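Q: Convert this sequence to structure tokens.
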Amino acid sequence: METITYRQWHEEGTFKFNVETMVSFSQCDRNKNLSVHELLKLTSDIAVEDFNQRNMSRDTLTAAGYAILVSRNSFNIHRIPVENEFITVSTWEEKSEPFQFIRAYEIKDSKSNEKLVTGLSTWLLVDLNNRRLLPIKKFTMREPLDTVTEHDCLKPEKISLPENMTHLEDRKIRYSDLDANGHTNNARYGAFAFDAIPDEFKEKKLKALRINYSQEALYDQNLEIKADLSDSEKLTVAGFLNNGEKPVSSFECEFYF
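A:
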């Protein structure tokens, strides 16, 4: 039996961080493909570990009064990773926007070097003392980066919601949806959205996705999941919180087939 050694490393002279891993049974859907929420979890976790290994762990950030929270994700899926596939997940920071960190991703088959998934995400800098957003120039725990590369995914930008979206289901936030920040983990929103769409779309080849996080969903709150079902090649899905007179969007998502 082949012995596989999993590695983690930063490429010398760059901030590119690489992790080798294998897609496990529990990360896959019934078709043996890496599930949407596990893709979101995988890329979020490697971003956090990149910061950990650059002396910017969550505890260190908290002690300095900072939180860095994912705001938007966009992925182009060339071929979705499958069960037992040996993959290399890479991430690196790029030049920040005034109020957003920019991070890029690439997932490849470790053996053939086939490009599987490429993506971009944006992250917000939050002052923990007053829960307000800070401009990225206020972050002094690492030198600003000026890397800018070409990307083949959609830009992680605002998702416009159509009018008269169809109600799909209501989803209550449970304890297992929460993370150590006390709110719903970002990957769970991807599960909420994909679980709610009609079954015929779940069997289609997912070519790309975007997901934006607008307002945190907390324990025991209800999300009303709605979608625009008018396009067979693109689904727009959103989750709404009823916090008052008018429902507020908690997340917006686009699936491209």
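The mean pLDDT is 96.
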